[in-house]
Amino acid sequence: MSPELAIPFWTVTVAALCATLCALLGVWLVLQRVSLTGDAISHSVLPGLALTFIWFGTREPAPMLIGAGLAGLGTVALTRLISQSVRVGEDASLGVVFTTLFALGVILITRYAAQVDLDAGCVLYGLVEFVALDTVRFGGFEIPAVLRTILPVFALSATFLWLFRRELALMAFDPGLARTLGKRPGLLSYALMACVAAATVASFEAVGSILVVAMLIGPAATAQLLTRRLGPLFALSAGLAIAASAAGYALAAAWNTSVAGMIATVLGCFYAVAAISQAVRTGLSHG
Amino acid sequence: MNPSEPSLFEIRNLTVAYDRRPVLEDVDLTIPAGKLVAIVGPNGAGKSTLIKAALGLIPRLSGAFFAFGKPFGRADARIGYVPQRESVDWDFPVSVMDVALMGTYGRVGWMRRPGKTERLAAEHALEAVGMREFARRQISQLSGGQQQRTFLARALAQDASLYFMDEPLAGVDHATERAIIDLLRGLRSRGRTAVVVHHDLQTVPEYFDEVVLLNKRIIASGPIEQAFTATALHEAYGGKLLTLGPLAPEAPSEAVREVRSER
Amino acid sequence: MSYNTLLVLSGAGLLGALCGVVGSFAVLRRRALLGDALAHATLPGIALAFWITGLKSLPALLSGALATGVLGIAALSWIRRHTRTREDAALGLVLSVFFGVGIALSRHIQNAVPDGSQAGLDTYLLGKTAGIVLQDVLAVAAVSLFALLGVLLLFKELRLVTFDAGFARSLGWNTGLLDLIAMGFVAIAVVIGLPMVGIVMVAALTILPAVAARFWTDRLGALLALAAGFGASSAACGALVSAAIAKMPTGPVTILIAGGLFVFSALFAPTRGALSASLRRRRERLGLGTRLVLKELSERGPLAQPETALQASGVPRAKRAVARSVALGWAAWREGDLALTPAGEAALREARS
After folding, report:
1. Pairwise CA distance, residues C174 & C165, whole Å
2. Range 67-126 of C in CB contact (< 8 A) with A
3. For the residues A273-281, what does the mean pLDDT come to?
4. pLDDT per position in chain C (353 positions), as tens?
5. Residue of C171, C178, C181 to mutate when probing chain B, most B C-beta within 10 A
């Protein structure tokens, strides 16, 4: 492939893979009403990543994923601990944990930026336009290095979501029943959050920790306005994620701006169109 | 209802819906002055909705209210409200005294502090419900009955002429129930009126003067002996009542037992 | 310390105090993350204001920030009222999409304006005390003081509407207006905090001090005072540290200090802190154990091997409970057997009454 074609191709591919991965996980976050936990995890993986970089001096996928996964699960566990000891509400205890961890991560990254080849800007909004430049050889092809993280995480998460689809549905609908049936909803929700942490890490370089929230929640929240059935909900979320990635890239190229920012903007537009048309429809049937 | 009695609060054509699902339909109700009025009905009958709508806390599709003989727009401090206990966060950082003082806020005006008069009123109110010694206690350290007494003290401190109370007797111990009933009678003897959402049909004739039987619409309302009949109860609660026929005021309790045993 | 440093510190301190106070009401109202959504939604406003005016004047940028921040909150309340999207999803969506729009706008401006004067906009992400001119510090201090005074005046109203909005409305109060005022205070705190603490971190300064203070007190007045103190010291120390050490963005440092205060509170606060809670549990268990020792001794008479016998009948920490009973004079050894003393009998009677 010529470089003129390879860069757009890989940029859109990486963005679409991240967006689809996040969208599929996001459906469960939205259905289980724990979107904010996804937001929190996407922030708090940062110190996990930074410490892995600093201690092991590596950007290999495996240690990165483990470090980030631990940070993500730590967030969930700490949040539960806090809301048990002072009853301040889930949102406040989440806010306490993830902001402190994120602050720690940003300081580590800022102070050791030279060593880890990451800067605070990348952490906040990602630079998907550069992923095509950092390539590795794989089976005779030059592929972006980030795919070494994204593809395994994608495969793992998709398998998890497929194998446990019934349990996840039961948990979203009736956690009490799930528990009495011996389905271990606690363990399952930790597993889901571990997938979210892994997906966040995989998408980190591409979209950063704040815009990944748009990818997690945007497609699922939009799809939820359009259908109430589970199968179409997943299909629609994935479709919206891919469409937003392609459209976001095209618009960013046209207006000479950030691809990740434009993807989030397009996802916001999708949601706005769906929400407004729904509101107008119900408004009409009311009147 | 006896037309010669002065009406204190009047509801005309009230309709309330949640998400297009009607919860109350065409409710007309007159509350006479100086009485204890029970609102009873099955779960989901709209009992809480009725008093929240009357206070203007939730929007209505249709209906007008008249209080003290005048059209009634927005709630004011002349009408007291005792919400359901579960409606607030009992871990909130305030003391029992702070809650009682809130009853006087309607008189104090914005941006001013409650003064000596208000403190005295709050203390008297706490005394009346037997909570004086707990005045400085944080509200999370109260039992369910004490929480309910604290809410009642707030209502007393407000010194309203008409009270709407949402299930004040739900989940309280026997002593608190007695204390609350004594309190309600005390209010009545001073010419005040209380409209109380109540869940225990057996105690209605003993505790209240008037009853409103509600199931999305008014099934019956008026003095106990006229409105609290087996026929009306049967209509309000559906087929769950087995005893039929005209009954003396005391008799509904037999029928009532059937309802309770099915719960 | 120079006069200027002192001024910056007091500006940061007042800002931190304001964040702590308005955040306390938000946390108690279970709206802690609303400020976070608002903060992220200010980015497009800052970028637009710069694009339109071409200036980096603080009032212009902050007016833009306030405009889109409020727009974000309006979008949230519209979503809540007119769609079936849940609150949590709506919050995350508004936060990330507005931030995305802001990133797209500021990248576009950066690429379109060749002289690189836009680079300053990035400092709004993580905050920077160094670049702020004295005049701006004075403005921040003045607004903070003014807003703090407003909260003080409306203390009674905010307390009631936070605790029991339904009752407030039954008094005839306009609770919608009060909510708007409370939200407005948060908006002011967040927006004037942007230059120092940054978009990403400023909302945390409204959450952390409030939650930390909650560990120490059950009184709202004391809670507000403590939260103000925690907020003020975090912000002032943050400004100081980031000015003194290179490569220390102000926002993250401030939040890390606030986080440290939170961890300290969570561990060491009396009654609610983790340490005192676990001590109390141990004491209670010990008290229970001692009482059970007395009960067993009074029912079974003197025991030859009390530790094993008591352990077998379910007395927790039997060995320590026995030692404690002896130390308190409630039980005594008589010819190798442990027996109840008259003082122990009295203690048991008292425990049972």
Report:
1. 10
2. 79, 82-86, 88-93, 95-105, 107-108, 111-112, 122, 125-126
3. 91
4. 678 888 889 999 999 999 999 999 999 998 999 999 999 999 999 999 988 887 778 889 999 999 999 999 999 999 988 898 999 999 999 999 999 999 999 888 888 766 555 556 778 888 887 767 888 889 999 999 999 999 999 999 999 999 999 999 999 899 999 999 999 999 999 999 998 899 989 999 999 999 999 999 999 999 999 999 999 999 999 999 988 888 888 899 999 999 999 999 999 988 788 888 888 887 777 788 888 888 888 888 888 888 888 888 888 888 888 888 888 888 888 888 888 888 888 888 877 76
5. C171
The 3-class secondary structure across chain A, one letter per residue, is CCHHHHHHHHHHHHHHHHHHHHHHHHHHHHHCCCHHHHHHHHHHHHHHHHHHHHHHCCCCHHHHHHHHHHHHHHHHHHHHHHHHHCCCCHHHHHHHHHHHHHHHHHHHHHHCHHHHCCCHHHHHHCCHHHHHHCEEEECCEEEECCHHHHHHHHHHHHHHHHHCHHHHHHHHHCHHHHHHCCCCHHHHHHHHHHHHHHHHHHHHHHHHHHHHHHHHHHHHHHHHHHCCCHHHHHHHHHHHHHHHHHHHHHHHHHHCCCHHHHHHHHHHHHHHHHHHHHHHHHHHHHC
Going by C-alpha positions, the residue among A141, A132, A171 that lies closest to residue A34 is A171
SS3 for B56? Answer: coil
Rounded to whole angstroms, the Cα distance separating C126 from B234 reads 67
Going by C-alpha positions, the residue among B251, B219, B252 that lies closest to residue B236 is B219
Q: Could you tell me the sign of the dihedral formed by the alpha carbons of C138, C21, C31, C29, in that order?
A: negative
Chain C residues touching residue A110 (CB < 8 angstroms): 247-249, 252
Percentage, residues of chain A above pLDDT 90:
40
Q: Is residue C254 a contact partner of residue C20, using CB atoms and an 8 Å limit? A: no
- Note whether B169 and B137 are within 8 A (CB): no
- To the nearest 10 degrees (0 to 180), the angle between helices A35-56 and C87-112 is 50
Distance CA C36, CA C204 (A): 7
Residue keyed to tokens 């769950």: B240
Average pLDDT, chain A: 86
Cα separation, A73 vs B177, whole angstroms: 47
C349 vs C343: CA distance, rounded Å: 10
**Residue C258 near chain A (CB below 8 Å):** yes
**pLDDT at residue A54, as a whole number:** 82
pLDDT digits (tens, 9 = 90+) for C147-156: 999 999 999 9
Element (H, E) at B219: strand B217-223
Chain C closest-CA separation from residue B165 CA (Å): 11
Q: Does A211 touch chain C (CB under 8 A)?
A: yes
pTM of this structure: 0.87
The SS3 of residue B162 is: strand
pLDDT per residue over C308-345, tens digit each?
A: 888 888 888 888 888 888 888 888 888 888 888 888 88
- Considering only CB atoms, A104 lies closest to which of C91, C249, C256, namely C256
Q: Within 13 Å of residue A78, how many CA atoms lie on the same side as its CB?
A: 23
Name the residue among B90, B32, B22 with its Cα closest to residue B53: B22
Length of chain C equals 353
Which residue in this structure is represented by tokens 């005021």?
Answer: B249
